[in-house]
Write a structure and sequence with these properties.
Helix content: 40-55%
Shape: elongated
Number of strands: 18
Number of helices: 25
Strand order of the largest sheet: 2-1-3-8-7-9-10-11
Mean pLDDT: 90
Largest sheet: 8 strands, mixed
Structural class: alpha/beta
Radius of gyration: 30 Å
Distance between the termini: 43 Å
Strand content: 15-25%
Length: 570
């Protein structure tokens, strides 16, 4: 999965209800629900101290939430356990994490939420599904009557799901989540005090479209895969075709990583398009996985592709266990399929080395620093890191680091019998060795970038010089040669422009392709500027004998009627 779902749900029905005469609570224009969390100046994050076996993981999860929230707001955030909160902490805005959080109970108050083996509860609203999550905001019961401080609650502490939804963004006072999508939400009566009360007018509890979609689903199976689809949206023959494609992808991953064994099962949900997938799952991306639930979700378009990237996640999760590191999670998938936007990862490594922008291991293993990196840089770098680590140590040796609550550089170095500084140097040395084959590509692209920058400024002589340099690295790149010819014309070097255009036409650009057509059209214009009208007319007539590409026939007829002049160069 490559996109974090952060949807904002502000229901028109809720706003209308809050504006209605006699509606309780705050004015609708002021009530932004859970979004208030992102505007706070101070906050205390409270994590559950029980069970004891989870205390360290819960603390690290709280630290990650704090880093995420402070990165966006520069808020001052303190982190404590539910048994350590002081009187000063209780007087702050509070964010309680986890169903097992006992801060409220520890201070003699009845919590308005609960979870059993079969249900989740918020006040008097109950859902018959123990895997759902709850968020809400209300006035803090620990603050004085006239103090506006708030208490927030978010039930989820799950390192796999937290990666893609560190905290929800929702404009209502409470919401029930199924993974990343809201299935019920509403507002609260803010005049009610503690415990909070639901505002029954401003609620949305069911979506009939979603219920109908889920009700009509069918499934087909192949080995460990069960493909689930709605035949009203995805024809059964399409589903069968997709199942074959994904089974081949699964088998490729097993060959690369190892067999997860007979206990491995995966439910693959297929959606007709991204909008449907967004509505049903809360995630618009073409594919994402929910490893704890044994699920993979894909659009038809993505599922038909030959990419095995997403298929790596569930197999790796079964073989190694969950990881709190997004770099490790995504990087392993890129290590197995080392391509990003049709370019090998080593190409991006060469670019990053050339730009001195290669992230360090510490950058990659810090969730907030990793989140801020441009996509191409973070995914390519994490893929290269996991490629190197697999080659260096093998996945089995990396398991304890991969599944650690905090898979940081020091822990990684310890697993490899080194220290973080030495490990970074070894990684950099390995990266440098991977980039040699792409030095020409990087120099070519650097020259093109310079040419574009000069062209924007009207520095055509400098742009032409940069394009000439680019062609020394890729002399057969006909598009660059066409750009050089056009730039030559803007400098008044018409004869040199015709030479470049003749090279394109003699270089096999495709007898009827768009580049051939426009090279002929540009050649006619260059001849006109050289006062070689007969040659220009011949070129325009050849354009008319070829397919009409981007109105080329209109431009050729204009050239036949009137000689091209320099003032028309754009």
């Amino acid at each position: 999965m490559k996109q974090t779902p952060t949807h904002i749900f502000l229901l028109a029905a809720m706003v209308g209800a809050l504006l209605a005469p006699g509606a309780p609570g705050r004015a609708a224009v002021d009530d932004i629900g859970m979004l208030e969390l992102y505007e706070l100046k101070t906050l205390t994050v409270v994590y559950p101290s029980s069970p004891a076996s989870r205390k360290d993981s819960n603390r690290i999860s709280a630290q990650n939430r704090a880093a995420f929230l402070s990165a966006g707001s520069n808020a001052v955030i303190r982190i404590v356990s539910d048994t350590e909160a002081s009187k000063s902490d209780l007087g702050d805005n509070l964010l309680l994490l986890g169903w097992s959080n006992r801060l409220v109970e520890n201070h003699g108050l009845r919590p308005p939420y609960g979870k059993s083996s079969t249900t989740v509860r918020f006040i008097d609203y109950v859902e018959q599904d123990p895997d759902l999550d709850l968020m809400f905001i209300c006035k803090s019961p620990f603050a004085p009557e006239d103090d506006p401080r708030s208490l927030f609650f978010w039930s989820r502490i799950d390192r796999e799901r937290d990666r893609f939804m560190t905290m929800p963004r929702v404009g209502s006072d409470w919401a029930i989540y199924s993974d990343y999508t809201v299935i019920a939400q509403g507002m609260l009566d803010h005049a009610a005090g503690w415990p909070p009360k639901r505002d029954l007018i401003a609620e949305k509890l069911d979506d009939p479209d979603i219920k109908a979609y889920v009700r009509d689903r069918q499934s087909i199976e192949s080995g460990p895969l069960r493909l689930i689809f709605n035949p009203n949206m995805v024809p059964r023959e399409t589903a069968a075709e997709i199942l074959k494609i994904r089974r081949r992808a699964h088998d490729q991953v097993v060959q690369a990583l190892g067999d997860p064994g007979a206990g491995f099962k995966l439910d693959l949900y297929i959606y007709d398009d991204e909008e449907t997938k967004l509505k049903l799952t809360g995630v618009k991306a073409g594919a994402h996985s929910v490893l704890g639930a044994g699920e993979m979700h894909m659009t038809v378009r993505f599922a038909r592709s030959s990419s095995i990237h997403e298929d790596v996640h569930p197999v790796a999760g079964h073989l190694l266990g969950p990881t709190a590191s997004t770099a490790a999670y995504e990087g392993l998938a890129y290590a197995v399929e080392p391509v990003l936007l049709d370019q090998p990862l080593t190409y991006y490594a060469a670019m990053m080395i050339n730009e001195d922008s290669m992230p360090s291991i510490a950058d990659l293993l810090d969730e907030e620093r990793f989140r801020k990196l441009p996509n191409a840089r973070r995914f390519a770098a994490s893929g290269l890191l996991m490629t190197w680590l697999r080659d260096l140590a093998g996945l089995k040796k990396l398991t304890n680091w991969y599944t650690a609550p905090d898979p940081n550089p020091d822990r990684l170095a310890a697993v490899l019998g080194s220290d973080a500084g030495r490990l970074e140097m070894r990684f950099r040395k390995w990266i440098m060795g991977q980039t040699e084959a792409h030095s020409g590509d990087i120099s070519f692209n650097t020259a093109l970038g310079e040419a574009k920058a000069h062209h924007i400024k009207g520095e055509y002589d400098l742009a032409a010089a940069a394009l000439v340099r680019a062609l020394t690295y890729k002399p057969d790149d006909l598009q660059t040669r066409f750009n050089l010819a056009t730039t030559r014309m803007k400098t008044g070097a018409y004869r040199e422009a015709t030479e470049e255009l003749r090279k394109i036409l003699d270089g096999g650009a495709g007898r009827t392709g768009a580049l051939t057509v426009h090279a002929l059209l540009q050649l006619g214009r260059a001849y006109d500027l050289l006062d070689r009208r007969d040659d220009a007319l011949a070129a325009y007539r050849q354009v008319l004998e070829l397919p009409n590409r981007y109105h080329s026939h209109i431009s050729a007829r204009e050239g036949l009627d009137t000689p091209f002049t320099a003032d028309r160069l754009d």
